[in-house]
Design goal:
Strands 2-5-1-6 form a four-stranded antiparallel beta sheet, with helices on one face. A two-stranded antiparallel sheet has the order 3-4. The protein contains two helices and six strands, in the order βαββββαβ. It has 118 residues and is an alpha+beta fold.
Length: 118
């Protein structure tokens, strides 16, 4: 079964940028996590997202469509990236979520709705 691991964090907690002290170590943990997923045969895809300030939202309501700058909701946390994994059970997905090197933040684990046969 496929699960989406949505990586949510507080945008006021800064991550090291290229050239900063600790950047290589920070990225190494993410690279190792991704490689562990690949080695386990669980990796489907994953990407980091640019900050929420780069978002544009298209909203449909009451028969009209509006386009606004910014994320879909005003939140204290933002979606920073995701992993799509394919594992046998929710417990396995939760184990992978626990191992994510996020420091501080949350991982929302959500099953992908099966669309086979549609």
């Amino acid at each position: 079964m496929k699960y989406m691991l949505l990586i949510v964090s507080d945008p006021t907690i800064e991550s090291p940028e290229p050239g900063d002290a600790g950047f290589e170590e920070y990225m190494s943990a993410w690279s190792q996590y991704t490689q562990d997923l690949v080695d386990a045969g669980a990796y489907v895809s994953g990407e980091a997202l640019q900050d929420a300030g780069t978002a544009t939202t298209v909203r449909h309501a009451a028969g009209s469509t509006t386009v606004v700058d910014g994320p879909f909701a005003e939140l204290k946390e933002h979606l920073g990236g995701y992993y799509l994994i394919d594992v046998d059970t929710l417990d396995a997905a939760l184990d992978w979520a626990r191992r994510l090197p996020v420091g501080e933040g949350a991982i929302e684990v959500r099953p992908v709705f099966p669309t086979d046969g549609y």
